[in-house]
Amino acid sequence: MGKFGIRTGAATLAALALAVTACASDKATGGAPATGGDGVKTGPGVTADKISVGMLTDLTGPYASLGKSITQAQQLYFEQLNAQGGVCGRTVETVVRDHGYDAQKAVAAYTEIGPKSAAVSQFIGSPMVMALKQRIETDKLLTLPMAWATGLLGGQAIQVTGTTYDVDMINGVDFLVKEKGVKSGDKIGHLYFEGDYGESALNGSKHAAGKLGLGVVEQKIKATDQDMSAQVSAFKAAGVKAVLVSVGPRQAASLVGVAVARGMDIPFVASNSAYSPQLLGTPAAPALLKEYYIMTAAAPMSSPLPAIKKLVSEYQAKFSGQPVDSGVGAGYSAALIVGDALKKACQAKDLSREGIVKAHRSTPSWDGGFGTPMDFSRIDQPASRSSYIVKPDKAAVGGAVVFKEAAVSDLAQDYQVPVG
After folding, report:
1. All domains in the chain, ordered by first residue
2. What is the pLDDT of residue 224?
């Protein structure tokens, strides 16, 4: 799911974001916080009876199906929260904008709804969030990216949930060595998107490979590339014993399908964005069902965890006939994190932006029942270093099952995460 991230003219986009910072930031921060009649300090996006939460999503671009699931799951959560009385006697209102995975549209959407939001419960895409990172921090607007590049770490307002791409890949390489016969002196391939997503994942694979005596055969592609035949040829010629996959679902399907067709009987270990259950309805399904493993901080929707089973039931009741993919769990848990921050800020009688961020960052241990314990108190570290190993399964809810329960390798535990 987006652990998404293609850098599209990052310098230009960052400049565009900064160009409007001076005028937009004053509006976004809204000046000095006010105190309402109930004694609660308020800020932008908070009135006497309403709290506005923004969603900057992809409903028309390459991650449209995932964006839809994330958005619907978050709307379900806030609807349930409101049915329980809302927060501080206020109804939570969601404001959704589709950027279509276009960074310039994302900047425009943030400029529109940022000044009116108390928090942003989803922001799809590493390049989009990176283009606005400085503004988000200046605006002190609690924002949960649906992206996991390490460059997003280091700020108070932006909360990367779960693991980062590099940590997942370190755990993945450890798995290949311990359980899939890869040994010192072997070569492994890594297919990755250019930009923050791919480069972050590559940092992890190269770190682990260096520690374990492996060679890495790199193949970098653009998000617009579709046919992976040339990349398969390069991997086969190099004699790789496994391939890491940090691209989108479509490219992953091409890679694995072509590789298996050419007789490459090797395991594939993927970043969480490199799989979608919809792929099991395509000709690539047999190859994906063979030896394709996904590294992810999140338990799959087929998990027996009570919170996930309850969510699946409620989501299916609300959105009958809609697919229950990983976006449902990712979206709902992110909304829950924002909801918990708002509740904690309410208890402190401070719903200003600073109060919401402070409430969130004062949480060193959070789970929510979704099987991913996280620490929100450290801005320079991933919230978790434990990765599930998930495998595609046609019969499972969400199209995937747990192959190995969440664990952190020694390599990932000791890894010094670069902070951007």
Report:
1. 10-162+305-361 (3.40.50.2300), 165-296+387-414 (3.40.50.2300)
2. 85
